[in-house]
Predict the structure.
Amino acid sequence: MEYRKHRRRSLGVLLQSGDEWWSRRSSLNRELLAPAAVSRQATPLGGVARDFALRLDALRGAAGGEGHVAGLENELFKFALESVCSALFGERLGLLSPMVPPDSQRFIEAIATMFHSTVPMLVVPVRLHRVLNTKTWRRHCQAWDVIFSYADRWIQKSLLSFRADSSGDGGDGGGSAAPHGSIMANLLKRDTLSLDDLAASVTELMAGGVDTTSITLHWALMELARDPSLQEELRSEVTKAMTPGS
Ligand code: HEM
């Protein structure tokens, strides 16, 4: 909250409350939670999941012997960010390829720094950190600056492509940053959020979807690794759910 005020940025949905929150949140829900909107994302997310499985296979192969995957935590971070952005922008970031774009890696690291630097500010009031310009406050601001500027670049790219498509200059949208069906393209088309609110909410989606899901997946994988019978149970549950007509 203090950072958003400091940089005069919209509060998005994470930091809003009451009617202000609900008007923004209900606009997002239509593109994020409605069943038809969710099913539109199944194909792009399935593609990311397939590439992630291939990447893990390759890493296990490269490790030889026991086939351990070194740095699984970072791999899961990349998988989570690639998934969120493919749904948001309809474009692949290339995080699951051997060479990760440096700005994407910086974004991932900035999210971790943002969370770490939040903890001390839950103990000593954040305004005091701000007034005293503590190291924690500076690290926190720098991390959010990286997060917002990375998200801003993607949002701008989507916006330019959307405007080109709308004015008939952008062809059929194939290969554009906001192809039809992406969450961003549909939110721009709906035009119910101001650009500031859209930027804040999309940034929150990008930042909020990385650590949360990857750390949860990490723990789930560890539990599954410890108990092969659970793996079998899960496999048969998924296979059953995926069988047409089940
Ligand atoms: C296991 C995974 C996740 C956990 C444990 C988790 C946890 C939470 C919690 C506790 C909040 C409430 C924070 C507060 O009000 O102070 C929250 C809000 C939020 N999360 Fe997550 N989250 C997860 C996954 C995700 C994903 C995948 C995304 C985005 C793609 C996301 C985006 C958001 C956003 C935008 C909010 C603010 C929503 C609002 O206030 O209307 N989260 N999450």
